[in-house]
Amino acid sequence: MDTTEFRRRGKEMVDLIADYLENIEQRTVYPDVEPGYLRSLIPEEAPEDPDTYEDVVKDIERVIMPGVTHWHSPYFYAYFPTANSFPAMLADMLSGAIGCIGFSWGTASEATLVALLAARCRAVRMILASDPQRPETGITSKLVAYSSDQAHCSVERAGMIAGVRMKKIPTDQSDKYAVQGETLRRMIQEDKAAGLIPFYFCATLGTTPSCAFDHITELGPICNAEKIWMHIDAAYAGSSFICPEFRPLLNGIEFADSFNFNAHKWLLVNFDCSTMWVKKRSDLIGAFKMDPLYLKHDHQESGRYFCTDNSLFRSLKMWFVFRMYGLKGLQDYIRKHVELAKEFESLVRADQRFEISADVVLGLVCFRLKGSNEVNETLLKRINNGRKIHLVPCLLSGQFVLRFALCARTTESRHIREAWRLITQLAEEVMQELPH
Ligand code: PLP
Questions:
Q1: Does 154 map to a domain?
Q2: Ligand 1 pocket: which of 155, 208, 210 to mutate (most atoms <8 Å of CB)?
Q3: In this predicted structure, what is the pLDDT of residue 305?
Q4: Residue 301: its pLDDT value, please?
Q5: How many angstroms separate the CA atoms of 300 and 305, rounded?
Q6: 419: helix, coil or strand?
Q7: DSSP-assigned letter for residue 38
Q8: Sheet holding 399-405, edge to edge
Q9: 231 strand-pairing partners
Q10: Is residue 367 in a domain?
Q11: 133 to each of 92, 142, 195, 234, 359, how far by Cα in Å?
Q12: For residue 88, what is the enclosing H or E element?
């Protein structure tokens, strides 16, 4: 493809993308194919001679689209949003063209891991400073990290990768599924009495199951006093802190050693774009410093270089989005999702057969039919089998709960009402068939 053809194909691709997004709600939100469906549609090997561009484009609808879950359909209410905006897509094209290497930290899961590894390194150094004869393996085998039992599974996995004990702190309905200071304090005391070394706590602001907020104003001072690294995972909820009315949810941030949120979830910057702040830069750099000759340059120690070098691809997308939406546009977008979530919540509350399972703070509504887990599992299966809307469940206090997350940029009130009409219609059927 030469430049002349690239200009033409590029314009065609923009049209294809615009058509796809403009008409996305006509597509089935969830694919109706079995894993492996691609095998019979694609050749075993790459073509010996090049295919034409037309051949490739033709196969988008024939081969690719049947297997796609349309995350940007206004009928997609599963997981949390993955952001999507035109300025970010344009910036993505530009970063592809500039094409320099971004040594990036990646996603929220990686931020949790990176913070954990830095915390481990800091803990070992602190102990060795006062007890230089102590063998390092003896220290690491005693380390213990904590997170809520509602934390994202990537936190537990970070513990596995780092090879340290990770303990889950219990939460329940009475705590609104948030970790309380007293519970953490008790666990730390018990672990210290058993000879363990508490060193890391991952708090979550906006948990994946129910968007709960750990009490960091209580937890932070405990962590600081015990020299425990407090990392805050605000992967989803972090974007909402650009609105003054949600900023109090961030109270206690001053106690954190590191903080992360995903602009690629709820701030209109396409995947991936995850941001991480660290209170003491040297704790992070010191833990991972590599100094090969081929990477040396004159600005090695400057913080400014560190930022720009590591995240050109992500920051370019952010820069486009921030400038073209402006703070007001981004705040409007967040507020609209929250309003739609409140609208859905009122629909649920107005129906005596249903109950709300957790406080609705941002764009997530956890709800269920009053009754058994079986009846709710069947309802969710029916909803997803219908393929008109897509939701995923969570377990709260042993109850099977349906999560309705505002995801798509284009979701409007009419989509919410249509989704609710569908849910109640299927609920009616399920309740007639099953004891509840
Ligand atoms: N943390 C929380 C609270 C999440 O909800 C999620 C994903 O939904 C993650 C972490 C993982 O984010 P990522 O895919 O960026 O690793």
A1: yes
A2: 208
A3: 39
A4: 62
A5: 7
A6: helix
A7: G
A8: 354-356, 364-369, 399-405, 392-396
A9: 202, 258
A10: no
A11: 51, 16, 18, 39, 51
A12: helix 86-98
Peptide bond into 175 cis (omega under 30): no
Check pocket membership of 211 for ligand 1, CB cut-off 6 A.
no
Compute, in angstroms, the gap from residue 398 CA to the centroid of ligand 1: 22
pLDDT tens, residue by residue, 301-333: 655 433 333 455 678 788 899 999 999 999 999
Give me the amino acid identity at 91.
A
317 lines ligand 1 (CB under 6 A): no
Contact 225, 167 (CB under 8 A): no
Q: How many CB atoms lie within 10 A of CB 265?
A: 26
What does each C-alpha distance from 262 to 235, 238, 324, 339, 407 come to in angstroms? Answer: 5, 7, 19, 21, 14
In a domain, 178, yes or no: yes
The answer to whether the beta carbons of residues 151 and 235 sit under 8 Å apart is no
DSSP tag of 95: H
Determine contact, residues 117/287, Cβ cutoff 8 Å: yes
In this prediction the pTM is 0.90
Q: In sequence order, what are the residues at sequence separation of 6 or more whose Cβ sits closer than 8 angstroms to the Cβ of residue 264?
A: 82, 83, 107, 270, 271, 272, 273, 274
In eight-state DSSP terms, residue 283 is H
Average pLDDT over the chain, rounded to an integer: 92
Distance from Cα 236 to the centre of ligand 1, integer Å: 7
Output the pLDDT for position 306.
39
- What's the token pair of residue 241? 């802190």
Does residue 304 fall inside a structural domain? yes
The pLDDT value given to residue 80: 95
Per-residue pLDDT reduced to its tens digit, 341-394: 999 999 999 999 999 999 999 999 999 999 999 999 999 999 999 999 999 999
CATH of the domain at 194: 3.40.640.10
Return the residue whose CA atom lies nearest to atom 5 of ligand 1.
Answer: 208
Is the separation of the CB atoms in 255 and 277 below 8 Å? Answer: no
The atom of ligand 1 lying closest to the CA of 206 is 3
Is 398 buried (19+), middle (13-18) or exposed (0-12) by CB count in 10 A? Answer: exposed
Q: How far apart are the first and last CA of the chain?
A: 62
Instruction: State which residues of the chain have pLDDT below 70.
Output: 100-105, 299-313
Question: Domain range holding 150?
Answer: 108-310
* Closest atom, ligand 1, to C-alpha of 79: 8
Number of domains within the chain: 1
